[in-house]
Amino acid sequence: MEKFKEQATAQLFEKGLITENQFEEIKTYRNLNLFSLNAELKLFLYLSVILFTSGIGILIYENIDSIGHIAILSLLLVVIVVCFYYCFKNSKGFQKQETTFDHPVVEYLVLAGNILTCIFIGYLQFQYKPFGEHYGLATLVPTIVSFFCAYYFDNRSVLTIAITGLAAYVGLSVTPQDIFNDSNNFYASQNLSYSAVMLGILLILWTIYSRRISLKTHFGLVFLTFALHIISIASISNLLSYDTLTWMIFALILAVSTYYFYKASYDYKAMSLYVFMIVYAYIGGNIFVFRIFENVDFSDMWTLFILLLPAYFVGSIIMFIKLIKNFHKEIEA
């Protein structure tokens, strides 16, 4: 890597893009062998927030009878107020473009305050039911708070919490175990599957609208990532439906989704979108082919299928690697 950097610097000097003095200064700086701890420090800050909020949850769970509900809620409220007071005091206010803070601690205090707010509202609803039997409001309120914090403080981590809360409000499972479990609501209710697709479409439309008005355009990749997973998982789940019309509709939805995210991955130059798009398309494509030929009798050709199966999977892996390499070359060009 160092040799590559030296060659790149030498090429800049040879092309006259930097002066000889600048070239020597770059060499001198690199010879100091300095390295940044920024990523490591941010990782420790993130882990600190996760461990702190997890500790609060464990503390509540293990001492709920001895501490008392009012004391727990009061403690949570005090910590939340302190977090947000510091954040509002040191923030630059809402801005449409990407915002950076002078001190990285602010970003993680926003995350901590937001998580504690979700815990506070959830615990309040569980114990005192201020929203009555409308448990959806206990999900919607922290979701709205999370969206506000995400846009006001320009925080992607909080944005993921907000979108997850929105999905939970719609009724979607958020764990892989629930999504692919036979008892999951995707199988039990077609309405939920269509709701998942509609939620994914709304996330896409919001991303398009945000780009047009230049509102936090860097959030687009987060929205599209959620949309890709939600639409694709709902579609693949329903490809296994016994109803012919249902699985054909969702096969069409998956095909349209694959095409859109193929274009979006190049537009955003996002490797993650491209990789998951291929994975979902591959899984859905195989299921679709199986459904098409499920009533055809291939009993006389099983031996041939077994022989061709290893070659098929090896060829798929080679094609996958080739597609990734080509994508990387194209976005770097």
TrEMBL record:
<feature type="transmembrane region" description="Helical">
    <location>
        <begin position="108"/>
        <end position="128"/>
    </location>
</feature>
<protein>
    <recommendedName>
        <fullName>DUF2157 domain-containing protein</fullName>
    </recommendedName>
</protein>
<feature type="transmembrane region" description="Helical">
    <location>
        <begin position="305"/>
        <end position="324"/>
    </location>
</feature>
<keyword id="KW-0472">Membrane</keyword>
<dbReference type="Pfam" id="PF09925">
    <property type="entry name" value="DUF2157"/>
</dbReference>
<feature type="transmembrane region" description="Helical">
    <location>
        <begin position="221"/>
        <end position="239"/>
    </location>
</feature>
<feature type="transmembrane region" description="Helical">
    <location>
        <begin position="67"/>
        <end position="88"/>
    </location>
</feature>
<keyword id="KW-1133">Transmembrane helix</keyword>
<dbReference type="InterPro" id="IPR018677">
    <property type="entry name" value="DUF2157"/>
</dbReference>
<feature type="transmembrane region" description="Helical">
    <location>
        <begin position="245"/>
        <end position="262"/>
    </location>
</feature>
<feature type="transmembrane region" description="Helical">
    <location>
        <begin position="43"/>
        <end position="61"/>
    </location>
</feature>
<feature type="transmembrane region" description="Helical">
    <location>
        <begin position="274"/>
        <end position="293"/>
    </location>
</feature>
<feature type="transmembrane region" description="Helical">
    <location>
        <begin position="158"/>
        <end position="180"/>
    </location>
</feature>
<feature type="transmembrane region" description="Helical">
    <location>
        <begin position="192"/>
        <end position="209"/>
    </location>
</feature>
<keyword id="KW-0812">Transmembrane</keyword>
<feature type="domain" description="DUF2157">
    <location>
        <begin position="11"/>
        <end position="158"/>
    </location>
</feature>
<feature type="transmembrane region" description="Helical">
    <location>
        <begin position="134"/>
        <end position="153"/>
    </location>
</feature>
